[in-house]
Design a protein that fits this description.
95 residues, mainly alpha, 4 helices
Length: 95
């Protein structure tokens, strides 16, 4: 019964917020059209988005490693986080 209630709740939520999916789709369509019109700027935006993602992911990995220092292998997550922050910062500076 719990799975059916969860599915029913998800359907209700999607029916109430259908417009969010529409706005996301229209924004994606607009970005695709703009990418064809001006591919240089589109590539720059994608590069900056990637750099920001890697930077935030690296910072989250560092935070996770520091907060889990009592667990085995925390240092590997710390190294991945440091590498992510360095690569993200480099990519933001030189997109």
């Amino acid at each position: 019964m719990a799975a059916e209630d969860l599915a029913r709740g998800a359907q209700t939520f999607c029916k109430r917020t259908w417009w969010v999916f529409l706005v996301g789709g229209l924004a994606s369509l607009a970005f695709g059209i703009l990418a064809f019109v001006n591919p240089g700027i589109a590539l720059l935006v994608l590069a900056i988005y990637f750099a920001a993602y890697v930077l935030v992911d690296g910072a989250a990995n560092i935070w996770g490693a520091i907060s889990q220092r009592d667990k085995d292998g925390w240092w590997a997550l710390l190294l991945l986080g440091i590498a992510g922050v360095l690569v993200g910062a480099f990519a933001l500076l030189y997109p």
